[in-house]
Amino acid sequence: MRWTDCRIVAFDTETTGLRPFDGDRIIEFGAVELQVGQDLRVVQARRHDFLINPGIPIPREASKVSGIGDDQVADEPPFEKRADRVRELLSDAILVAHNLPFDLAFVRSELERAGRSWPATRAEVDTLPLAQRLLSHMRQHKLGMICHELGVDLVEAHRASNDAEACGRAFVELARRHHAPLDLVEMVRWADAVSPPPPTGHLAVGDKGVPVFLQGPHQGESVEAHPDHLQWMTIAIERDGTGWRPRFPEDLREWARRWLRARASSRARAAARGGGALDWGLDPAPWREGP
């Protein structure tokens, strides 16, 4: 399947702060559906922008960034009333965001509060590491700087749908300039993106929309809860009649390496002895900066 035939949805959030698991909430959600032509240029962009009442006061610092104050969201519905529409927009699409883990954490937290799971997606692309790799000559890779480098318009930055559309267009322009493969699977590898795990019988997308282990000591549990075990799966070996060989298929190991790179928090590292699952421990990653 060509990725240009899929729904491409770039999304962004404006929030009360930087800590979704410590009480901060979404105050604006923006998503832009992009239609991409055969020449890898955007031919249509459809915007969806929702102001959201967070149920808590918006700090002055957050209002300075987004321009959104308490009075603007006072009569807006809470996220729970928008949850089904947000989930519908993100479902079965190639998702694109700049510093994806930040927005992903906020949207997932809000969906969980509303009793909804993260939707099944075709791929999840983070334009921040992609730009860092492809535009390595740049000293900083903030969204505005990337857009300026690529000739993409970004008007009124720090409003959700404006940032979302600019991010989506920047992704498409990076794909065009750097000759991204048209095949969906190959594009996911090119972008170092997250996608559903390969059907090897070891992992699958669970009921909550995230990958879970299908076998082993963590059967039925989410991959993100045990990244050390996932990391071990990338190097585990076993003996056969001719010598040592990888214990798990290469397509699964390649997927696991991409997932671990994309989900930088909870990154795992081998202990000095290496080899066995019991030799592994967590190496907490530094906090990712907000957008």
**What portion of the residues fall into strands of 2 or more residues?**
15-25%
Kindly give the count of domains. Answer: 2
Give the N-to-C terminal Cα separation.
Answer: 32 Å
CATH topology of the largest domain: Nucleotidyltransferase, domain 5
Q: In CATH terms, what is the architecture of the largest domain?
A: 2-Layer Sandwich
For this structure, what is the CATH homologous superfamily of the largest domain?
Ribonuclease H-like superfamily/Ribonuclease H
* Strand order, sheet with most strands: 3-2-1-4-5
Helix content: 25-40%
Whole-number radius of gyration? 20 Å
Secondary structure: number of strands: 11
- Spans of 5+ residues with little confidence (pLDDT < 50)? 265-291
Overall shape: globular
Going by helix content, strand content and strand pairing, the class is alpha+beta
Can you count the helices?
Answer: 10
CATH class wording of the largest domain: Alpha Beta
